[in-house]
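Q: A reviewer asked whether we had any structural model of the full assembly, not just the individual parts. We don't, so I'm hoping you can provide one. Inputs are below.
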Amino acid sequence: NAGVTQTPKFQVLKTGQSMTLQCAQDMNHEYMSWYRQDPGMGLRLIHYSVGAGITDQGEVPNGYNVSRSTTEDFPLRLLSAAPSQTSVYFCASRSRAASSYEQYFGPGTRLTVT
Amino acid sequence: DAKTTQPNSMESNEEEPVHLPCNHSTISGTDYIHWYRQLPSQGPEYVIHGLTSNVNNRMASLAIAEDRKSSTLILHRATLRDAAVYYCILSSSGGSNYKLTFGKGTLLTVNP
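A: Here is a predicted structure for the entire assembly that you could use as a starting point for your response.
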């Protein structure tokens, strides 16, 4: 299994540009989430999904959109990039099984907005 | 969600045990205690979790106080590869525990 994969690894955007961060998992996990991590801080939840077609907002959703058309993929869209969105973005997935508590994280996408 | 308090940083020597403390005085009866760690330039990885009883796995042990207001992650023999930020996180049982709230964690430095 590849686990959770994220592309791209690095990205530089200009203010106002849009882009999509890709996340995929091959573990058939129902739950997927997006987090952002600013320098010296812990991770903050942006959006999450409990299954295909179902998404909801996390702690810091403004400026981001998500959709979940398949179990495997959970892309994060930046609508109009701002310098405040400079951060490292992590995608995570987890099985819905009650006995499973481990979240699996991807390697991250480092985004710089100038 | 109930909050956790961890020291900002700790230091250890290689091959010695490390005890990483976490206070969670407002923990509720259904909150699980999770530990994740984040190696430099990587995503977080799961370490261990527990509810009331002490837990052991291949990576670490988790000691939970009887009143559950604190817990300690124990690395039995620290290696250089254990240098990371360690996060203590509470989440309720059931479906909502996919939403993890990360604090700043404890930066563990391991000296050779």
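A: Points you may want to mention in the reply: Chain A touches chain B at residues 4, 31, 33, 35, 40-45, 48, 50, 58-59, 90, 92, 94, 96, 98, 101-108 (CB under 8 Å). The first strand of chain A starts at residue 4 and ends at 7.
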